[in-house]
């Protein structure tokens, strides 16, 4: 049986001599990043939990008059715990327990903002084109069980959490959305962003998606969380390049997250059973660690942005 593919970096490090590896990384990743010294307690937790833990930093020039603002970001690429045929409640409970363990480890590493992969509370069942039982994973983005868990974790660890779920909007005819919820370090829900627009590639098709609405990735902010898609074209060829280039004109850090592992479904389908991983953070200078648009919204944003008195919209936790 072939070994499980975990990341591009691990594959390169395994098969390339040191000198060639250094040059390949320079071409692919730009300026090299430094490894972080992680706490021994965190490394032990990771070993006990059977997950990989790695940390890197982007070095910048120190200023004379301003102290550096250091933000430590945690990007979690996880895999399902139970088989896709297990009861829905059991699958969700197992993933909740797993993410609590990972979040505790991240807290020991001093993480300020932790980001979970797309729809981490369930298998990536969009490729099956089936409605049932997968929509049973959908929950409220305001007070669902996953949000309540994340609120507890945020308060416990003084950490901002970006949590992607399958959302059920009970106020509007139980519509289903692919939603990322932002929770402050005080446990307050700051807001959410919905993503439903899927390019027609392979098995992924808007005609078999829950609701036609928002887009795959956002721009015009200082930082962005982009859960990567599993389409071969986007991830294997375009994804890594697009997500490294994306921060350059926007001047923000991009956190690209993708799940790992293999998901097997009871009914036959044609692709996306293997999850490629390779999550990373990309910097505004084009370096990195080992599309569609909403034109009306952007037109309004650009019109406001060129005004002399323009101020960015910044949402604060009022708690």
Explain how this protein is built:
This is Beta-ureidopropionase. It is an enzyme of class 3 (hydrolase). Keywords: Hydrolase. One of its GO terms (biological process) is beta-alanine biosynthetic process via 3-ureidopropionate. By secondary structure, the chain is α/β, with parallel strands linked by helices. It is 29% helix and 18% strand. A five-stranded mixed sheet has the order 3-4-5-6-7. A three-stranded mixed sheet has the order 8-9-12, covered by helices on one side. Strands 1-2 form a two-stranded antiparallel ribbon. It is globular and about 55 Å long.
Question: Topology of this structure?
Answer:
Layout: H1 8-15, H2 18-29, E1 34-35, H3 40-49, E2 56-57, E3 73-76, H4 88-108, E4 113-116, H5 145-157, E5 160-169, E6 175-183, E7 189-195, E8 223-227, H6 232-245, H7 247-250, E9 253-257, E10 260-262, E11 274-276, E12 280-282, H8 295-305
Parallel strand pairs: 3-4, 4-5, 8-9
Antiparallel strand pairs: 1-2, 5-6, 6-7, 9-12, 10-11
GO biological process, one term: beta-alanine biosynthetic process via 3-ureidopropionate
Pfam families: CN_hydrolase
Protein name: Beta-ureidopropionase
